[in-house]
Design goal:
28% of the residues lie in helices and 27% in strands. By secondary structure, it is of the alpha+beta class. It has 2 domains: 107 residues, no CATH class; 111 residues, no CATH class. Strands 1, 2, 3, 4, 5, 6, 7, 8, 9, 10, 11, 12 and 13 form a 13-stranded antiparallel beta sheet that branches. Strand 10 and strand 11 form a beta hairpin. The radius of gyration is 19 Å and the shape is elongated.
């Protein structure tokens, strides 16, 4: 599914508020986990190739406990093909899932969409995470979109910091990590997120006083080959907005066009 036309250093996000999910490209599980608003609790693995999980006899699924989370974060999940999970609070809740609910989870992992909203009071889950070639095509259901805004802002600033380390993106000496982009700044792009937008770190412009990261509205994609091809065309046009970092005040702002 994944072609060689992968574009590095861009993030594509398309938010579907009615169905409570976000489709993305360029955000990997390790970034999602490290930048979550609250630490991930336990993961019930629906589709995966992780070899160190514990086995839940009731669902015949494997799971990862929160104190083992670092292992799966470091495991290279992008090589699994499909990687799908749902978080849960206590294993006793997993043991209470009925046959219909277990069937719904298996269907969701297979089809990449749930039959019903994928939030279960027995699990008290915040997410349902469905990816193929993780980082290439990710579809995440959010109980609370504030979790998404926080994760996106934190992931962007951490990406910028790692790209710049050493002689990275801008060929400049390493600076201190950037502050997290506040969710109110990400909120400014509400309408563009609903249309589907690319945040282009590769086209970021750095001057002594600021950094400007351009944003293009590109549309609603499930096929990321198509999205990256269209992005290669649209990046020649003026951007639809900017994320701007003021190096003096160390603050982020949004500029919409």
């Amino acid at each position: 599914m994944k072609a060689n036309n992968q574009v590095k250093d861009i993030i594509y996000v398309h938010k579907n508020p009615d169905r409570h999910y976000v489709v993305s490209y360029g955000i990997h599980f390790n970034e999602f986990a490290m930048n979550a608003r609250k630490p991930l609790k336990n993961l019930l693995l629906i589709k995966h190739q992780y070899e160190h999980g514990a086995f839940n006899i009731h669902t015949h699924m494997e799971y990862v406990e929160k104190d083992e989370m670092k292992k799966i974060i470091d495991d290279g999940v992008q090589s699994y093909g499909d990687f799908c999970w749902i978080d849960f609070e206590e294993e006793v809740g997993v043991d209470e899932l009925n046959g219909q609910e277990i069937a719904e989870l298996l269907y969701m992992g297979h089809i990449k969409q749930p039959l019903n909203p994928p939030f279960y009071s027995k699990l008290n889950n915040r997410y349902a995470y469905l990816s193929h070639d993780d980082g290439w095509f990710n579809k995440v259901y959010y109980r609370d979109f504030e979790d998404f805004y926080h994760m996106l802002g934190a992931t962007l600033s951490s990406k910028l910091s790692t790209m710049k380390s050493g002689k990275g993106l801008f060929g400049m000496k390493k600076e201190k990590p950037y502050p997290v982009i506040g969710k109110e700044v990400i909120h400014s792009f509400q309408d563009k997120l609903k249309e589907g937008m690319v945040i282009s770190l590769e086209k970021a412009v750095l001057t002594r006083g600021k950094i400007e990261i351009p944003i293009w509205v590109i549309g609603d994609y499930y096929d990321m080959d198509e999205m990256t091809e269209d992005y290669k065309q649209i990046r020649k046009l003026p951007a639809n907005g900017l994320l701007s970092y003021d190096r003096k005040t160390k603050s982020w702002s949004a500029l919409l066009k």
